[in-house]
Specification:
The protein has about 270 residues and is α/β, with parallel strands linked by helices. It is built from 5 helices and 13 strands. It has one domain: Nucleoside phosphorylase domain (Rossmann fold). It has helices at about 70-80, 135-150, 170-180, 190-200, 220-245; strands at about 10-15, 25-30, 40-45, 50-55, 85-95, 105, 110, 125, 155, 160-165, 185, 200-210, 265. The strands form 2 sheets. Strands 1, 2, 3, 4, 5, 6, 7, 9, 10, 11 and 12 form an 11-stranded mixed sheet that branches.
Length: about 270
């Protein structure tokens, strides 16, 4: 789906602006894509590997979740030759066993977004990617292993429900999500994970519980989310560095073959 930019970047991180400090020897690259212009991509070194970083909400956290250019962000990384993406997400706890500052490596997700462009494949060839395992198993294993070495409270099974935002959810919505089996709620996993899969890129997520969801505790404020982010940032940095070091260059997961297997050709016309 386009021409790659030759940068030999092995892994990308998507998350908050402070994560750029993971990289050394940083070069910022501005790329145009068929889907718009993403924030400048920072490219540097982590543990001897070339790593790209995109601040999902812009360098000044000025883009709300429902306005993030998800297709531009993912496509820019694809142009650079990225094969693996590790994302970070702040989430609210729906499962009462989860508490603020806990780390979560989700295994599944539910999409409750409403107006976001969900796919790169709006035209032929019609493409239905398999999403029975939304998160790359190889990245998940690495995240779980390294998170458990670093943090006391790590949940390695969790269903993430993605809402449109930018408002927080209502207590009734949270009760519904709990009834559906959801453990955490956030606003950024979809369509990010879907778009990565459509381009054959591995995608895994390290989430941190920033607050208890609506109806469980008191009022929810962005200040609470940012304060929890500050408290867990050093652990997240350490885990990401170790995951980047741990992941081998050669992939052994099914993510890479997902796109070709999902296309419907002319011979399958109904």
């Amino acid at each position: 789906m386009g021409t790659e930019v030759s940068r030999d970047v092995e892994i990308a991180v998507i998350g908050g602006t402070g994560l750029e400090s993971l990289l050394t020897g940083v070069e910022r690259i501005r790329l145009g894509t068929p889907y718009g212009v993403p924030p400048p991509v920072s490219v540097g070194q982590v543990q001897g590997k070339s790593v790209a970083f995109i601040p999902r909400h812009g360098r000044q956290h000025s883009v709300p979740p429902h306005k993030v250019g998800y297709r531009a962000n993912i496509y820019a990384l694809y142009m650079m030759g990225v094969k693996r993406i590790v994302a970070t997400n702040a989430v609210g706890a729906i499962n009462l066993d989860f508490k603020p500052c806990d780390l979560v490596v989700p295994h599944d997700l539910i999409d409750f977004t409403k107006r976001r462009a969900p796919s790169f494949y709006d035209d032929a060839p019609v493409t239905h990617v398999d999403f029975s395992e939304p998160y790359c198993p190889e990245i998940r294993r690495a995240l779980i292993e390294q998170a458990k070495k670093t943090a006391d409270a790590v949940h390695d099974q969790a269903v993430y429900v993605c809402t449109e935002g930018p408002r927080f959810e209502t207590p009734a919505e949270i009760r519904m999500f709990r009834a559906l089996g959801c453990d955490v709620v956030g606003m950024t996993a979809v369509p990010e994970a879907v778009l990565a899969r459509e381009l054959g890129m591995c995608y895994g997520a390290l989430c941190f519980v920033s607050n208890m969801s609506a109806g469980i505790a008191g009022r929810i404020t962005p200040r609470e989310v940012m304060e929890t982010s500050r408290l867990v940032s050093s652990k997240i940095h350490k885990i990401l560095i170790e995951v980047i070091r741990y992941l081998p260059k050669t992939r052994s997961c099914p993510c890479a073959s997902s796109t070709e297997e999902s296309r419907i050709g002319e011979k399958y016309k109904c």
